[in-house]
What does this fold into?
Amino acid sequence: MGAWDRQLEEWIAGNRVHAFDPFVKALTFSATYGIVWLVLAAVAAVLMRRPALFGVVLLADGVAELSTDAIKAVTDRSRPVVDTIVATPSSSSFPSGHAATSFACAIVVAAFLPRLRGAVFALAALVALSRLYVGVHFPTDVVAGAAWGAVVGASVLALVRRRDVAVG
It folds into this structure.
């Protein structure tokens, strides 16, 4: 990890706009275990008559969760030492599981509902950035998590397309 990674996280933590704290905390908590994505997928599956959406998002979420846990066990990277506004997780910092699950699920939702692509990727980016804001990840953790999540999401889509599941 470069010094810039630590310095940027320290700058972010030191320059929070505390009026945003409740919103960012709610966002970061809602994305734990991909809950916000599962709720979004369930609602969209019903309202937009895309029943396969929930199952594919659940698969992407599960693969992203389990694979980032495995990577964290191997990397064992310490969390930032900054003033956090949420409890600091005991797991390794690298990669960000929130970023990974958010981008994996966003890729799936965007494939099923292309008109919502911008909104779902904006939500994924906000979740990823929330992990920096609350002080529990370094920037490289979040970038790596988002990239890994994109790989997971694309892989899950490729798998379900081979199974002839109607996507997009």
In short: The CA atoms of residues 4 and 130 lie 19 Å apart.
